[in-house]
Structure formats: structure tokens, C-alpha cells
Amino acid sequence: METIAVRSTGPLSGPVVVPGAKNSVLKLMATTLLTDGVFELSNVPDIVDVSIMGDLLDAIGVRMSRPEPGALVLVNDGDITPVAPYELVERIRASINVLGPLLTRCGHVRLSLPGGDDFGARPIDMHVAGLEAMGATFKYSHGYLEAFADRLHGADITFDFPSVGATENLLTAAVFADGTTRIDNAAREPEIIDLCEFLVAMGADVSGIGTSTLVIRGVERGSLHAVAHRTVPDRIQAATYLAAVAVAGGELDVVGVRPEHMTMLLDRFGEMGLSMTPTSTGLRVVAPERLRSIDVATLPYPGIATDYKPLIITMLAVADGVGIVTENLYPGRFRYVEELQRLGADVRTSGHHAVVRGVPRLSGAPVKAHDIRAGAAMVVAGLAAEGETEITGVSHIDRGYDDLVGRLQGVGATIERRTVDAAR
Ligand code: UD1
């Protein structure tokens, strides 16, 4: 078993490079199912979820290779079997993103229902309802979802809620639909914009990019082509390094980040006392003597992303004052709070809310990573804790973080990976 051991180190300093976004690259990879050809993706994070998506695509018929670090080549030679098997789908939520491309290209898809992070129920009713409005029919049996549509047709779809995954699936499905599809109240995260730009480069007709209304005019099957594309930087990994310097102190150059993708978060971090200046390569961040508490609510983009929340709660745990955090997306996503409490954090949760009373320092202890972002938050908490914090469940962190340990070592953190006896 592997663990990550971290100690409070004192101020961090130096440059840290932010790689491409997990939540974009996995969708770009799934979208290569739409058309034959050789795709080249760059700025690809070296994370386990990319390998899992690669295995899923391989099972369907697209072959992935890594010619060099940060690069992927995906070869779609048209020999596609539109079946996504349970053992791969259950490992990542983004596997649902093969639904739109396979259905619109092949007219049929058989997909095991998706898994992913352990934060409560994650239904796909909006994906299904949207595709039904476009003419698809669905059948559930033995844990598999089967979808059928000889050719989808355009439709006007208004979401109750701007779901990221449902927006992506309908967007990719609409590319070959007969006529025009309009998605209102669409999600508009930077990763959705990245997917739209990828589709447009491939020859799809998408407008309204970056707004809440996406309009997709269907083109003929076979009229797209493979492209080379650079993945958008990972704003959640970037926020992790900001949170690290915020609790450890010091000054970091966060290289590769696009500050305009995190405007609201950076505003709130400014209120907490971080000083941030855009540079030619990203953002310079200087930590205050002590953070100040604020209240935060998670919302769809451009609001504060739910994925930032474990980091924010960790920062509030050592800030001066009391902060209230409200979760509006996933009610069950407070499981890691118990782990923070083990480190001496004063956090109480009730329903959608967490009340965090800052303490001057945390106290190192063994803790567990329950999901990707919560795991990263444990690492950040360890930087603010006296003594050693040893984190198990490291496989969660590896799903979404490209060498978190090495990157933090590079800016002066006392942190290491260990192989330990699982039975100790
Ligand atoms: C994506 C991200 C995840 C992030 C989330 C919200 C990936 C791989 N994951 O997840 O890291 O936390 O966006 O920013 O990109 N919902 C329904 N029915 C549906 C679809 C969604 O009820 O058909 C609900 C979900 O249960 C959840 C909320 O809508 O409460 C948000 O889901 P969604 O935006 O779809 O998130 P994901 O695409 O799953």
C-alpha cells in the first residue's frame, strides 16, 4: 500500500507548473469516437483516469499511445464496438461521455451505468431525457443502459440545472443529428468551452460557445476530421497549489494557470488575504501572515466549483474567524470533514452547510483520502499541521493529480510517498 506523508514545512517558494485538466482531457478522449483519424492531444496530465479512459476506448476500438510525457495519440480506424463494459465504466464518472459520441455515430450503444467519486448519488436522468428529446430510445437491463437511434434529430432542450456531463453528452450527440439542437441553461465551464473548440476544429457547427445557450447544427456522419488540440489547464489543480501556499505561507509562481477561468475563486481568495498578481506565465501568489475567514457557497460555473470546496474548508480550518460553507451541488460531499476533525479542525456540518471555526494550527495524524479533491485537501491540511500527517487512499489522489508530491517537493514542502505494509 502507498501513503503520502507530509509535515508542516514553513514557507513554500518557487514555480509550480499546472498541467492540463482531467475534466477536459477525459471528454476530449471520449469525443475521438466521433470520427476516424489520428488525434493528437497535448498538455495531458499524467493521471490514472487518463489510463482508465484509454483502456475504455481501447475496448471500444480507439487505440491510445503516449509518444512523450504530456502527449497522447488516439487512433480511430473506424472499427468501433459501441459497448462500454462494467469493469471500466464503474471506475470513472467521465465514462458516461462515450454515450453521446457512440449513439450519434453508431445508432446504438450499450453502456454499464457509471461510477466515479464517492460523493452521493449521481444520476444521469438529464442525459437520458435530452437524448430522448432527440429521438433516442432507452432500455435498462442487468445494470446496462442501451440506447438506440438510427439518426438523432435536433431538439430544443432546456436544462433544470446546468449539468456538466449532460451538456457534454448532448453537445457531442447533436453533432450528427438531423437539424439544429439548442441547449438552454447549458453548463459553461472552461472544460466545456475546450470541448466545443475541439468539436469546431473537427468540423462541427457549434455556436454560443461559453454562453448558457449552445446551438449545434448537425452535419453528415463522416464529415468530421481528426485534429491536434492542447488541453485547457486544470483550474482545480491550480487552486490546490494556491491553497497549499495559503496555509503553508510563502510565495509561488503558478505557471500555466488561466486566472480568467477562476475569477470568482481568486476574488474570494483575495478576501481571505492572498495577494495574487497575473504574470506572463500565470499567477504569482503571496500568502498572508494568517488567512481571514469568509463564507462561501458552491455553484455551477462561473460560481465557486464544488471541487474547490475541500480546499476552501481546509483553508478556513486555519483561518482567523468563522466561515460558513454551503454546498449546492452534492449534498453528501462532506465526508472528508471527519478526517479534518482528526487533524484538530473545528468543523461542524448540518445538511448542506459546514461551519468552520479557524484554529491557529492543525495537529498531524493518519487520515484517509475519500475522493480525488478530498485527498488533495488532506495533503494541504498536512502542510498546516504540526508533526506528520500520513494519508492513505492515495489511489484517489493519483486519479486526478499529476505528481502532486513531486510538485510540492519542488517548492520546498516536506512530503514523500511511502510504500507501507497494508497490514501494519
Ligand atoms: C463534473 C465533474 C465533477 C464536478 C461536477 C460539477 C467530471 C468528470 N466531473 O461532474 O468533478 O464536481 O461536474 O462541477 O467532469 N445531476 C442530475 N441528473 C443528471 C446529471 C446531473 O441530477 O442527469 C446532478 C448531479 O447529481 C449533481 C449535479 O447535477 O448533483 C451536478 O452534476 P454534473 O454537473 O452533471 O456533474 P458531472 O458532470 O457528473
Task: Kindly describe this structure.
The protein has 424 residues and is an alpha/beta fold. Strands 23-25-1-26 form a four-stranded mixed sheet. It has helices spanning 22-31, 48-60, 86-89, 99-106, 125-133, 164-174, 190-202, 235-248, 263-271, 309-317, 337-342, 372-383, 394-400, 404-410; strands spanning 2-7, 12-17, 37-42, 62-65, 72-76, 83-84, 108-112, 137-141, 144-148, 156-158, 180-184, 205-207, 213-217, 228-230, 250-255, 275-278, 282-286, 296-297, 322-326, 346-350, 353-357, 362-363, 366-368, 385-386, 388-392, 414-419. Helix content is 31%, strand content 27%. Bound molecules: uridine-diphosphate-N-acetylglucosamine. Residues 23, 26, 93-94, 122-127, 161, 163-166, 305-307, 329-330 line the site of uridine-diphosphate-N-acetylglucosamine (UD1).
Strand order of the largest sheet: 23-25-1-26
User: What sort of overall outline do the alpha carbons produce when their principal axes are compared?
Assistant: globular
Q: What is the number of helical segments per DSSP (H or I, 4+ residues)?
A: 14
Unreliable stretches (pLDDT < 50, length at least 5) are none
Q: Let me know the average pLDDT.
A: 95
Heteromolecules bound: uridine-diphosphate-N-acetylglucosamine
| Oligomer designation | single chain
Ends distance: 10 Å
Q: What proportion strand?
A: 25-35%
Number of strands: 26
